[in-house]
Hints:
Blueprint: H1 9-14, E1 22-24, E2 27-29, E3 36-40, E4 47-52, H2 56-71, H3 80-96, H4 98-109, H5 113-135, E5 141-142, E6 149-157, E7 160-164, H6 170-183, E8 187-191, H7 198-210, E9 217-219, H8 224-233, E10 239-243, H9 246-258, E11 263-267, E12 273-276, H10 283-295, E13 307-311, H11 315-326, H12 347-363, E14 366-369, E15 373-374, E16 382-383, E17 386-389, H13 396-399, E18 406-412, H14 415-422, E19 427-428, E20 430-434, H15 438-447, E21 452-455, E22 470-471, E23 474-475, E24 488-496
Parallel strand pairs: 7-8, 7-10, 8-9, 10-11, 12-13, 12-20, 13-18, 17-18, 20-21
Antiparallel strand pairs: 1-2, 3-4, 5-6, 6-24, 11-23, 14-17, 15-16, 19-22
Helix pairs in contact: 3-5, 3-7, 4-5, 4-7, 5-6, 10-11
Amino acid sequence: MLDISTTDWRSEAQKLRIRSQALIDGQLVDAASGRTFASVSPIDGRHLADVACGGTEDVDRAVAAARRAFEDGRWSRQSPADRKRVLRRLADLVRANRTELALLETLDMGKPISDSLSIDVRAVANCFDWYGEAIDKIYDEIAPTAHGTVAMVTKEPLGVVAAVVPWNFPMLMAAWKVAPALATGNSVILKPAEQSSLSAIRLAELALEAGVPPGAFNVVTGNGPEVGKALGLHMDVDGLFFTGSTQVGKYFMEYSARSNLKRLGLELGGKSPNIILSSYRDTDHAARTSAQSAFFNQGEMCTCPSRLIVERSIHDQVVETLADTAKSYTPGDPLDPSTKMGALVDARHTERVLGFVDIARRDGATIALGGNQVRQDTGGSYVEPTIFDNVTSGMRVAQEEIFGPMLSVIPVDGEDEAIAVANDSCYGLASAVWTDDLSTAHKFSKNIRAGLVYVNCYDSDDMTTPFGGFKESGIGRDKSLHALDKYVELKTTWMNVAS
Length: 499
């Protein structure tokens, strides 16, 4: 078995064979235009590959292939038990190729190799396993109609669906959409983020090896304004499922309205409130967990608990513990297994994140820790953990999604103010409250407007629970059996059977 701590990950990286073409109808192909874009590692600025830069013609080819595969039934008409076997084989292949897949994630978007291997790849395999195992346990219905009639309510796949996914968890966000879509019999076109396309191509290759037929799972690489828009406007795409920014989610709603009213699932931004109350006795534990959750994955998470709302009586203790914990998240080499925080995804995003330091100062916040770019000699994109203190709810750092290792501390006086500040956001994805009082926990979980409420923990996760948000954090849910509903149509068949 692979030992993460003793593996020479730089040596393993040198052995990688990187696929950089689109995968359409079971074949690796160049973009129709011949264009490419450079995949550059944020670890050190190295050139990884020239990736096929698809456009409208490539989307048309992929949609046509997906439609053929759907209509001739090579995947859509396989029994649930047969689809189950294929998806579970894919899960096994993900595990068998875990070193390669983890390296692709780390090299492409800068996260620590220990996280890529033990969290991302493991979760991807589990996702395909779970939906494969679940799909032959889902039953249709017979409605309770009058004597002499039978009304069947059956679930049918949507048809051709597009999945457009972000760069922060490239393969896992793809799995959350591709696994339930394939499980329910759809044909899929995956559009990965241009910052992190490499693992998507390899995942589609493994799907072919597992037995997903050509055309049922395609990958079109390219820029969002071209490939994403073309998928959103395509008249033969039946559903589009997106994870990313709220602004782009609004574009997809517009594209759906302008085209064929395709079904949408939108998992969008977040500015998650994390509330530590004085009624929680282990203040240091709450603060340590809050820091760990805020700086995990370089803060590049839609659920990042970037608004730390803390009762004023424990404020100083919380900030001291936050700063002490942050020291262990000093950015390091992502290929070093001991590194806890790696590089931001690219230089452009790094510049945007650092811009919030000046914004915080201008708005009147103080910089309790960090605020600087580091490891610049490597050629990579690294920002140290940053804590903004004395933040008020109206400041930009308390309202805008930074998507970096930056945490805003907002002091409040009492529970009612904490709830008001928690809900003072256009977002409603994740949230947390720390309290030892059961009544208080229930009060907060009922009153916080968010799709996820953690009590005395943060970012706890399981495939059995739905993931998604309220307000401008999106429409629909990923994960759990509820996710399957997005990828099926309900059909009622009414029969008069009386003689």
